[in-house]
Structures
1.
Amino acid sequence: MKKSILLFLFSALILLFMPVQSHAATTQTKIILDGQELNLPNEVEVVNVRNNIMIPIRVVAENLKFNVNWDQKTQNVNIQQGSKTITLTVGKQEAYVGNSAVFLNIAPQIIKNTVVVPIRFVSEEMGLRVGWNNKEKIVTLASTTSPPSSPANGSQNDATTNLVDEINYADNQPVVSLDREITPQSDATTNLIHELNYANNQLVVSLDREVTPVITTLKNPERIVVDFPATDFGNMSQPVPTGSMGKLSTGDIPNLTEVRYSLFKNDPAQVRIVIELNNVSSVNYNQQYITGKFILDLDMVNDPTPATPISGSGKKIVVIDPGHGGSDPGTTSITNKHEKHFNLALALKVQAILLQEPEIEVVMTRETDVYPTRSERVKLANDLNADVFVSIHGNSVLSSPQTTGTETFYYQRASSKELANIVHKHLVKALGLKDRGVKNGSLQVIRETKMPAVLLEVGFLSNKSEEEAMMSESVQAKAAQAIVDGIKEYLKL
Ligand SMILES: [Zn+2]
């Protein structure tokens, strides 16, 4: 392991490293690396921001012995060791590990003229294992031989993931079979919940690291119990119940009675969330973990107010949304054409094919060069109680004309992700453009629609050959058929 320090010290850095005044809120956080307490200079302050331990970049360079480069102009912090490079930007939650973008719990910031970065992220990316003892305010770092392999997907080691193999309910007791005993964990590994939300039939739990909860379905009363082992409440934005239950506001959802949460056990801590229902057997659920959030997606199967197809024909309702339009041209192609025209041309071809499908009712958000607002598009689909929502777009990065490929977006819901995977597969196969993958993205039309929803970026209009292809009738026909094939496969038609 190369341990040289390569610090680019500019005048700005001297300012950054000026001694900070001690004040009442100074934490006495200790950092222990491989059993040895780091000797932090007196003027160095470790700060706790919403339960994220932030350390000055000086500590990263001098004590953790990584190469650090601070660029005042771009506000970039570049941390490097061996072949590994991570780049963080002050005020931005998006960071880069090599060339891959990752999402931080918390953005680096400047506190009292000092750039501070989240110690967990930096350490874990550099192959250190991180523990946090909340009671004693101690960060423990341990060298590991193999750094985490997948920087983008949380940072938990397999070694600490307990797997639930089976869940049973007998003798009034949930019986949970695990691949190993979940031993009471010390504070050093206590996970912290920062936020709880229930909206659009999704329970969203923001955590400081990935935890696999134990989920149990119970009757009398009908409920789903979600237990987070070795987990406590962190700096929550909503009140933390002391000795009693907190309640989440859920809005008016048929079949859902209430969602409550509590610190179910102390020592080891365990957070319990209870979703109380009228009828638990009419609910399917999916769980996933996306950028610091555990998401439980509830699907009320026999919803008492079922989707009413507009025609009353029992057909599946598919909403096709040609992006932009009218006053909103979208992006511009390399030959100065507007994205909105491509979107509409392709969407109309999709519509033409879907009109031939006996079991599908197709509804367009626009059929001409007009601009319905994004909220209007969302409302249309939600009011129809549509089965599927597909938004059609073309990409463009004029500054990078060599960029090419097809990418597909969904937002959080497992059903949307499944639809995205299927449609994307068909599109990539039919067009043969570069596969840029299926991505989670918070885009209004797929975020606020309540049905499985995807946004397709078919290709790059800023690339000369891709633009030519996308503007051709034959390629649009292929793309339209692929989108329809994907929708039909998803709807099992
Ligand atoms: Zn667009």
Note: The pocket of zinc ion is lined by residues 323-324, 330-331, 339, 393 (CB under 6 Å).
2.
Amino acid sequence: MTKTAVVTGASSGIGKATARALAGDGYRVVLAARRGEKLAGIAQEFGGVAVTCDVTKPEDVERLAAEAGDDVAVLVNNAGGAFGLEPVADAAIDKWREMYEVNVLGTVAVTKALLPAIRANGGGTVVTVTSIAGDAAYENGAGYCGVKAAERFASDALRLELNGEPIRICDVAPGMVESEGFSLVRFDGDEAKAAAVYEGVENPLTEEDVAECIRWVVSLPAHVNVDKLTVKPVAQAASYKVHRTS
Ligand SMILES: NC(=O)c1ccc[n+]([C@@H]2O[C@H](COP(=O)([O-])OP(=O)(O)OC[C@H]3O[C@@H](n4cnc5c(N)ncnc54)[C@H](OP(=O)(O)O)[C@@H]3O)[C@@H](O)[C@H]2O)c1
């Protein structure tokens, strides 16, 4: 029987690549994001189900759960991102709130809404895409580091709470990924600032690299739980230490 996988933030970047990878592994993939048209185009490639959904809106999350169906085998909580890069002294509080809403509350809301279907499936896998930003603070990154740490803690608590049930809770924490939207979103559409993030870095991760990690975690035998997978490009030793050729 075809198993269902739900991927949030599937209109772009890591989520889009993950949706494709899981479809390639035979899942019926339900894709969620706000940009419905973009989402529908991607879903059409492999016969997926596109659900226009803002994970911060309860009615959208409810609709996503309904479209996902009664049995869900895999949930990939990927919708999120960083908004801004400024020191605490200049914190844009509205952006911090928005970051918390999508990365933390959105992830928790979707997980809560889909848990009954994962249980009805007889178990499954919940992957949350956090970040190495959640491992330690870096200058000007407090808002994003904080939300990714909070997302990880929600995921860690859930693993403890579900202990005894056949549900795997996995945290995939990427370092620098040159994805479609991440830096553009962080710098509010400023292409020059976004491009500078990857300047001189030999082979940052691609969205497909991270999608392959997620696909692999999900494909392991059901008793094997990868609690946390950290993946960085070789050129990156820590969030603040990146080798650049120029
Ligand atoms: N790129 C990196 O260096 C990096 C490193 C570590 C972790 N990450 C994490 O990886 C995840 C994916 O990022 P990415 O690099 O693939 O960036 P991206 O290309 O900008 O993709 C972000 C996705 O999230 C969706 N999204 C944003 N707000 C949403 C909302 N309120 N409701 C539903 N969907 C929403 C976007 O779709 P819509 O705009 O259509 O809603 C988009 O599909 C994020 O959680 C990010 O924090 C990225």
Note: DSSP finds eight helices and nine strands in the chain.
